[in-house]
Design brief:
It contains ten helices and 30 strands. With 507 residues, the chain is an alpha+beta fold.
Length: 507
Amino acid sequence: DTLNFRADRAGYLPYGNDHVFVIAVDSGETRQLTSGDWTASIIMYGANRSYLGWHPNGNSVFFPALMEENPDISYAGYINEVSLKTGESRRVTLEEGVWGSPSISPDGKYLAYIGFDSAPSPVYQMQELWVSKIDGSDRRRVSGDLDDTVFNYFWANDSEALYFNLAKNGERQLYRTTLEGKPKMLTKGKHMLTPTSLSADGILSGTKGSGTEPSEVFVTKTRNFNKLNQLTHLNDWLYDERKRGAFQRIDFVSADGTPVQQWLQLPSDFDPDKKYPLIVWIHGGPYSAYGEYYQETVDYLAAKGYVVALINYRSTLGYGTEFAGGVTGGFPGKQDFEDIMGGVDAALAEGYVDAERMFVAGCSAGGIETAWVVAHTDRFKAAVAMCAIVNQISAAGTADYPIWGYRHRAKPFWEDPDEWLEHSAIMYVDQVKTPTAVFVGENDTGTPVSQSLEYFVALRLVGVPTKLVLLRDEGHWFIKPVNKIRMIEYMLDWFNQFDPASQSPGP
């Protein structure tokens, strides 16, 4: 009797709901605080924001939930408080929206949380940082007008400010904001910073990485953010044993005049006077981003002699609401396709990419885009669509989070099937000329296996060279090391079969 009966990698869920429990540390005794036909959890754009927040006095717990009829078909969530003594709950956030990740100030006077007001239209909304008094009154947005998604945050020890990180232009920097909502960027540089905790004496810890450096643990004093002291050196062997190519940002203008960014990972033995094959590696989400963070898959592909293009096409975070939400109702479609093609053109303009040896691949939203790209251009020699959705209608009824599909269309498919089919790559399969392999985890429920099967069958029926790869014991995306290696090697083998410079025979 609920739509939320499956979860990726968990399979079919046991009957019941998630609720708040407390456990006595000394005795291990467990006590349930909440009950009812609702779930004490909230998901925002695929990210779990179900964290609990203790009141500093230890007498209550704050948690996100939707205590209304039919919560499984509602795109909403509220912050609630439950008393450890009485077990009684109350709603704290009264405004309609999607609110999660509650945290109470050290002095117990204020409540902070991440979220956004509900909107009637299918437009992406940034996860902003909010603060109210502990009773939910006097709500204010303290992330200011930064117009990008807040990720991690925590309170300053004096309860007068908060620290958080934010995506901007392919970087994540650390910010400090006051209760009046005046944020200030504290760090600069080509990196991804993820703060994790703040000690009582003002030492901040977190992780820091870049496009050429895997993340390591750092600490810094909150009085001086100019120096980030690296504590771990777990990945030094990468620099000692291997030579890496340059990781460079390329800015270009898309067909409609919108500025777009991409990063090019160059081969380790790069020579600007030579020509190299190109792999366009399309990111998932689509509400995510490429930028200054290390990816072992990209590093490996570059080590094999490819230039790898990482394009922040429309829907990417870090460029404001308009950019992120520009294709929400029309994904995949014209704007994101033109952004990707613009990135390819910009890479070619650098002078070292061989236009006759270009390939395209991606997983999840990247797989969706890959299937869309090969239906609208034949400039790539081969493609791999991984964990893709190609039929928006059938996916809406088989994915593990069906409300997502309905949220991102103006009308349900029974009222306007044309809109849904217009953005379904399978409807254009007769236009595909590019040899396209289909990869999927055998237990994928996020982008259901049936989608890949539909696509593989259709490609075969129209005579496009194709291959179906089902990776065992995998759900959405391929996370087991052996399967990640298989994915990369199978993909490179597929590309090699259609590479004009390769000696390998075709399929």
